[in-house]
Design brief:
The complex is a heterodimer.
Chain A lengths: L78 H26 L13 H8 L7 E3 L6 H4 L5 H9 L31 H15 L6 E6 L6 H13 L3 E7 L2 E2 L2 E2 H5 L16 E5 L3 H16 L5 E6 L20 H4 L5 H11 L5 H23 L13 H4 L8 H9 L3
Parallel strand pairs in A: 1-2, 2-3, 3-7, 6-7
Antiparallel strand pairs in A: 4-5
Chain B lengths: L1 E2 L2 H15 L3 E5 L15 H5 L4 E3 L4 H14 L2 E5 L10 H7 L3 H4 L9 E6 L14 H5 L5 E3 L4 H13 L4 E6 L25 E2 L12 E4 L4 E5 L2 H13 L3 E5 L2 E3 L3 H11 L2 E8 L4 H13 L8 E5 L9 H4 L3 H13 L1
Helix pairs in contact in B: 1-7, 3-4, 8-12, 9-10
The structure holds thiamine diphosphate and magnesium ion.
EC number (chain B): 1.2.4.4
Cofactor (chain B): thiamine diphosphate
Keywords (chain B): Oxidoreductase
Chain lengths: ~425, ~325
């Protein structure tokens, strides 16, 4: 036989994932499969993880196209609570817009916004209790806003002024507030995911009733600390909610690079035996309902839950970024899950508790509130003018008691 | 010759290396399509394809670990860590693995690779975009550590690093990317296009790793610096009018002890300058070597000017940064000492 089977090994080639489109292309989200609102079941909180594997590949949604709240995850929030949710999202959006402007005016060095992702942190906060602890990333300021943390304090931090609660030490938006269940933010990605698990373990060790929430972006799930967190949470059944905010992008890198072949980020939890759910991150009601489900599991000592919020980063990664270099300019308009503010507004109008006029009026009131806070914050200074934190603050707080060598250096600096 | 910024020089070094040697691969976070957050790899994916220049998941341990595997196979990875402040997840791979593969396998396996990372402050980056971790690498046996202070050196040293048979940590002072920043943050920085060291050959050339360069000859005192601090030291010398000899180390490991010792024996005085924190910093190593090798020539104690022993603050950046005033004061002190 002359033409027998070819025994030479096949040639290998490297697979490098690519997003569906690049700048200049037509935005295309046809690969994002979106189930109908109300179509995903709501299991009992003590369900066995094997029985809900498909929830890691679906999307839990409550608000339908017409603005109705439908299905088994609906009905948890009163109209008053929903109106407050809308206000919180509007506040976060107005706050972001003003702080972006302040950055352009040189009042701060840097800013990171939430545009399109407001529902995730605003609704989540309402599923927790006082005393619970979030380990947030830089894109969850809604946790503070929704908990009533004063905007002026946030601005003082952003402006690094004399009233900055963090004494000018931290990059803008890296807030910290124990009182509001908001752990000090690290600039190093994913490190805090496993710390949240440790906090939750501590609560269990002390037979406490408080729970923790870990936060991470799609891109950062690639870090080892993410996987350490999952194994610790799984082994010790820690009372923690493991949140992944999949806003489709990690600076210029599309989510497919971090996700690899897994299909979804929620699927990461399955191998660890952690109940894992995917939720419409632009649906205030769905975010709240799923978070509430996970919080109840944690509080009943049933262990961790992993939640992937499917959303979209409408704005630039930060004020140092220009997304037009790596994704089509109109991509956010094509995003199929819409705008979280508009969707909740539509729902409330449909319920007869809100109107276009009241919305416009609320926006104006909120802008006034933000401007008032900004005026007060600016009276304490901005990054390059007015009141500043002291040079002493460089040296304080490295240790509880200042060691002699740091004291010598402080004196050398003239303070 | 072309006028290049330090970003362009770094890019050109990778371009020339990838062109000459198809085993050179470049990867890191945002490095492929976008070309890096500082744009150092811009155009390389378009030119060499996405299997030679690509985006990675956000996992520094993954980036370096994978690079070690590729190096073991026979490739020459030149990887980017987005900021030096983010290298810590990779520290295990760098120090326990890359640095020791040759030694522990008796040369059976080697690890020719480059890990590039932007370092230093001056951009209001706060504690996680400003660090200078060079001493954490020079303390590790098996690594080479290089810090260029200008586009010309950056290109020649990076090509040498890529061609080196051992792992090289290549620290890029980010505040120098666009010009020779001398610490006078209130003035606009002169662009590299107006500086003679912004003149960089287009093609292949190398600068040997381990050779310091005297940036300003002088008789009164030796100033030892690297990276951004070279330009700060030059400014301080000019402003104090002290006839100092300014040495740009360029390579911290291996170190050009001959150039240092020769200079200190001549001047009898020495100030070591770095932006990193003082305690157990690289300046301690230099000072120790000087007392070992130049003790009988010293007329005053060796002084160090460095960042304070605290995390890098955001708002008080310029009170932290060891600028020309602080260096100038040390020059005066060492002259009186
Ligand atoms: C350890 C570490 N590596 C790299 C970075 C630089 N960096 C900051 S944000 C970011 C992208 C994160 O993307 P993602 O996790 O999706 O969060 P998103 O910004 O989309 O909310 C990168 C690479 C960092 N801060 N820390
Ligand atoms: Mg993201």
């Amino acid at each position: 036989m002359t033409d027998g089977p070819d025994l030479s090994p096949p040639r290998l080639s490297l697979h490098v994932p690519e997003p569906a489109v690049r700048p200049g292309g037509q935005p295309d989200f046809s690969n994002v499969k979106i189930p109908n609102a109300g179509s995903v079941p709501r299991p009992a909180v003590d369900v066995s993880p094997e029985d809900i594997r498909d929830l890691a590949f679906s999307i839990i949604r409550v608000l339908n196209r017409d603005g109705e709240a439908v299905g088994p995850w609906a009905g948890l929030l009163t109209d008053a609570e929903l109106l407050e949710g809308l206000r919180n999202m509007l506040k976060l959006r107005a706050f972001d817009a003003r702080m972006l402007m302040a950055q352009r005016q040189g009042k701060t060095s840097f800013y990171m916004q939430h545009l399109g992702e407001e529902a995730v942190s605003c609704a989540f906060r309402k599923a927790l209790e006082k005393g619970d602890m979030n380990f947030p990333t830089y894109r969850q300021a809604g946790l503070l806003i929704a908990d009533g943390y004063p905007m002026v304090e946030m601005m003082n931090q952003i402006f690094s002024n004399e009233a900055d609660p963090l004494h000018g030490r931290q990059l803008p938006v890296m807030y910290s507030s124990r009182e509001h269940g908001f752990f000090t933010i690290s600039g190093n990605l994913s490190t805090q995911y496993v710390q949240a698990v440790g906090w939750a373990m501590a609560s269990a060790i002390r037979n406490d009733s408080r729970i923790a929430a870990a936060w991470i972006g799609d891109g950062s799930t690639a870090e080892s600390d993410f996987h350490s967190a999952l194994v610790f949470a799984s082994t010790y059944k820690a009372p923690v909610i493991l949140n992944i905010v999949n806003n489709q992008w990690a600076i210029s890198t599309f989510q497919g690079i971090a996700r690899g072949g897994a299909g979804t980020f929620a699927a990461r939890g399955l191998g660890f035996g952690i109940p894992s759910l995917r939720v419409d991150g632009n649906d205030y009601l769905a975010v709240h309902a799923v978070a509430k489900w996970a919080a109840e599991r944690a509080r009943r000592n049933l262990g961790p839950t992993l939640i992937e919020y499917v959303t979209y980063r409408v704005g630039a990664h930060s004020t140092s970024d220009d997304p037009s270099a790596y994704r089509p300019k109109t991509e956010s308009e094509a995003w199929p899950l819409g705008d979280p503010v508009l969707r909740l507004k539509k729902h409330l109008i449909l319920r007869g508790v809100w109107s276009e006029e009241r919305h416009v009026q609320a926006e104006a009131e909120i802008l006034d509130e933000v401007l008032e806070a900004q005026r007060e914050a600016e009276s304490h200074g901005t990054l390059h003018s007015g009141g500043k934190p002291s040079v002493r603050d460089i040296f304080e707080g490295v240790y509880a008691d200042m060691p002699p060598h740091v004291r010598r250096q402080r004196q050398k600096a003239g303070y | 010759m072309a006028r290049m910024t330090m970003i362009e020089a770094v890019r050109s070094a990778m371009d020339v290396s990838m062109e000459r040697d198809e085993t050179v691969v470049v990867f890191g976070e945002d490095v492929g399509y976008f070309g890096g957050v500082f744009r150092c790899t811009q155009g390389l994916q378009a030119k060499y394809g996405k299997t030679r220049c690509f985006d990675t998941p956000i996992s520094e341990s993954g980036i370096v670990g994978a690079a070690i595997g590729m190096a073991a196979y026979g490739l020459k990875p030149c990887v980017e860590i987005q900021f030096a402040d983010y290298m810590y997840p990779a520290y295990d791979q760098i120090t326990q693995e890359a640095a020791r593969i040759r030694y522990r396998s008796a040369g059976d396996f080697t690890c020719p690779m480059v890990i590039r990372m932007p370092t230093g402050g001056g951009i209001f980056g706060g504690q996680t975009h400003s660090q200078s971790p060079e001493a954490l690498f020079t303390h590790v046996c098996g690594l080479k550590v290089v810090v260029p202070s200008n586009p010309y050196d950056a290109k020649g040293l990076l090509i040498s690093a890529i061609e080196d048979p051992d792992p090289v940590i290549f620290l890029e002072p980010k505040r120098l990317y666009n010009g020779p920043f001398d610490g006078h943050h209130e003035r606009p920085v002169t662009p590299w296009s107006k500086h003679e060291l912004g003149d960089v050959p287009d093609g292949h050339f190398t600068i040997p790793i381990g050779k310091a360069e005297i940036r300003r000859p002088g008789e009164a005192v030796t100033v030892i610096a690297y990276g951004t601090m070279v330009h700060v030291a030059l400014a301080a010398v000019e402003e104090t009018g002290i006839d100092a000899e300014v040495i740009d180390l360029r390579s911290l490991l291996p170190l050009d002890l001959d150039t240092i010792a020769q200079s200190v024996r001549k001047t009898g005085r020495c100030v070591v300058v770095h932006e990193a924190t003082l305690t157990s910093g690289y300046g301690a190593e230099v000072a120790a070597l000087i007392q070992e090798h130049c003790f009988y020539s010293l007329e005053s104690p060796v002084l160090r000017v460095t960042g304070w022993d605290t995390p890098y603050p955001h708002a008080q950046e310029w009170d932290y940064f060891p600028g020309p005033a602080r260096v100038g004061r040390a020059l005066q002190d060492v002259m009186e000492g």
